[in-house]
Design a protein that fits this description.
The complex is a heterodimer of chains A (111) and B (117).
Chain A (H helix, E strand, L loop, with lengths): L2 E5 L2 E5 L4 E8 L3 E9 L6 E6 L5 E4 L2 E5 L3 E6 L8 E9 L7 E2 L3 E6 L1
Chain B lengths: L4 E3 L2 E4 L5 E6 L6 E7 L6 E7 L2 E5 L7 E4 L6 E5 L8 E8 L11 E2 L3 E5 L1
Parallel strand pairs in B: 2-11
Antiparallel strand pairs in B: 1-3, 3-8, 4-5, 4-9, 5-6, 7-8, 9-10, 9-11
Classes of the chains: A mainly beta (111), B mainly beta (117).
Chain lengths: 111, 117
Amino acid sequence: EDQVTQSPEALRLQEGESSSLNCSYTVSGLRGLFWYRQDPGKGPEFLFTLYSAGEEKEKERLKATLTKKESFLHITAPKPEDSATYLCAVQARGYGQNFVFGPGTRLSVLP
Amino acid sequence: DTGVSQDPRHKITKRGQNVTFRCDPISEHNRLYWYRQTLGQGPEFLTYFQNEAQLEKSRLLSDRFSAERPKGSFSTLEIQRTEQGDSAMYLCASSLTSGTGGRDTQYFGPGTRLTVL
């Protein structure tokens, strides 16, 4: 069964304090790994798609990396507006098209 | 705004009542997905459509749930005889994919928050 875990469950950072979020996955064959940001009471907002080990994507203060077993979301010099829940999802090879999501990491950036 | 839209944004109902939610996907997207999300958890897959065909349903989708996508455009999700355990955020997503093995990024709507009293 495809599984996704994320750590830590919650993270509090001071503004400017860089850190990384982890997403570990077990799938029969990875078609894609996706990062989303979700604000309270809203739908997930797409950030990145990664397809193969070694791939990296960047957007502003965020950088996502992928290995064969996990992905990291690196946050450099975060700002309070980066506070949100960050969700990781995998899409497996095969007939199924759905995403399997992890529980998310709740990030709080304090001014 | 050309993103995914959902209606209503909030729905409060009494146990035993039927509710229906609507999702309008991004206009050129051929796939549409429904997910359910409870507090502190990631979204859980319910079902998906390619054009008007419903191709996959999760075991989470009991016989009280039904989804349609007539004409391959908007979709509706109906819950009959609601139970308190149905209280959750119902999310819709859409994607543009060619072929059966395509990689597809899913774009989500704002969700419908259901509260069953």
